[in-house]
Amino acid sequence: MSFLLHEIVYFGRSIPWIIIDAMPYFRKWKLQPNKIPSAEEQWSCTKQVLFSHFTIELPLIWLFHPTAEALGMQTYHVPFPSLKTMAPQIFLFFFFEDFFHFVAHQALHTGILYKHIHKIHHKYSAPFGLAAEYAHPAEVFILGTGTILGPLLYCYFTANLHIITVYLWIVLRLFQAIDAHSGYDFPWSLHNIVPFWSGAEHHDFHHMAFTNNFSTSFRWWDRIFGTDDKYREYRARVQASKKALKNATKEQLLEMEQKLMAEVEAEGIIAEREAEARGVLGGKSKTVKTQ
Ligand SMILES: [Zn+2]
Ligand SMILES: [Zn+2]
């Protein structure tokens, strides 16, 4: 049931984004409007995601239920917990996962961890909904730990957690991950209402620039540790250019934005090469041999 829930929500939530990508009307809200995923790209991504789901997630999910019961999680019990009980627990899981991801994701950006594991997820410099879990099975395992360890620890220490709360948390976490990869920033997107929510506008930059914005749900850790400097500089440059081009046509504005994006992406390609050459513990770059 846990596996089915994951599959239904993952692909179900991706469908609206596939439709939106197929409709030119929505292009004005696309963060990188010149990069629309093709049907072939989306299909090959789906196959890789399904491979990971069946080889890694299915066996792990099989272990989840007995582990949860051994830790005293309520599974078949009724009545279900109230929203008042669930809300703070789910917030705690969001907080835990976000920090876990912030640290683990940065580790995945170094040396062999990047080269052999995280590079797969960075195949798309302009992500789309389906690409949220497009990753090496080891990455699914490492980063998935952040999602599931929170509830397990909570259950261990408080002995007061219902599986329905965990399911609701997983559904919300899937929505967060898929929407963050959607590539669209609408005026009604959550981060425009809740300023510390990351959303697509935050994570799309991570894929485009290869650096900055390592967390998942919230912006605070990147802000506190300064791993959003390039992102904020880029946003400021876009704003300044827009101001300077006050009377420009739509085409001129688009051209300006694409020029800035191309610069960021070019820097990202160099940063990626450097990351691959760097030691895991952040040691000096090895000399990259030229052929
Ligand atoms: Zn990354
Ligand atoms: Zn991503």
Automatic annotation (TrEMBL):
Gene Ontology cellular-component terms for this entry are: membrane
**An example of a Gene Ontology BP annotation on this entry?**
lipid biosynthetic process
* Pfam families reported for this sequence: FA_hydroxylase
**Sorted alphabetically, which InterPro entries does this protein's record hold?**
Fatty_acid_hydroxylase (IPR006694), Sterol_Desaturase_Related (IPR050307)
Annotated compartments:
Membrane
Cite the Fatty acid hydroxylase domain residue spans from the record. Answer: 91-227
Keywords assigned by UniProt, alphabetized: Coiled coil, Membrane, Transmembrane, Transmembrane helix
Q: Indicate where this protein is primarily found.
A: membrane
Please give the Gene Ontology molecular function terms for this protein. iron ion binding; oxidoreductase activity
Top-level division of the source organism's lineage? Eukaryota
Q: Which residues form a coiled coil?
A: 231-267
Keyword Thylakoid set for record: no
Q: Which PANTHER family match?
A: STEROL DESATURASE
- Record protein name field: Fatty acid hydroxylase domain-containing protein
Q: Which organism is it from?
A: Psilocybe cyanescens
